[in-house]
Specification:
This is Ig-like domain-containing protein. This protein is mainly β and about 100 residues long. It contains no helices and eleven strands. The protein has a single domain, classed as Immunoglobulins (Immunoglobulin-like, Sandwich). Strands 2-11-6-7-8 form a five-stranded antiparallel beta sheet, with no helix packed on it. A four-stranded antiparallel beta sheet has the order 1-3-10-9, with no helix packed on it. Strands 4-5 form a two-stranded antiparallel ribbon. It is globular and about 35 Å long.
């Protein structure tokens, strides 16, 4: 299971936002943490932002960053912009079934 403390982003422009995610078991393999972050806007498919806990997906703004290890992970959005509004998911991609 994965628990997020906040998933819907609603903040003032320019702020830094941190979203937390806690897994119920370790998702570490070969020294890599198999945790991904997605952004979903209304009516759209989820967009991959971060994978392996901290690797930025190609084409994603560097305002997004991921960190964490073990059971606790964080997505940080710096200088948040209106276009960042949406729903955010963390998902383990260590094992099937994928859980978020």
């Amino acid at each position: 299971d994965i628990i997020m403390t906040q998933s819907t982003l609603g903040r003032s422009p320019g702020e830094t936002v941190r979203l937390s995610c806690k897994t119920s078991s370790a998702i570490l393999y070969n020294s890599k943490n198999y945790l991904a972050w997605y952004q979903q806007k209304s009516g759209e498919a989820p967009k991959l932002l971060i994978y392996l806990a901290s690797t930025l997906q190609s084409g994603i703004s560097s305002r997004f960053s991921g960190s964490g290890s073990g059971l606790d992970y964080t997505l940080t959005i710096s200088n948040v912009q209106p276009e960042d509004a949406g729903h955010y998911y963390c998902q383990q991609h260590y094992d099937t079934p994928l859980t978020q």
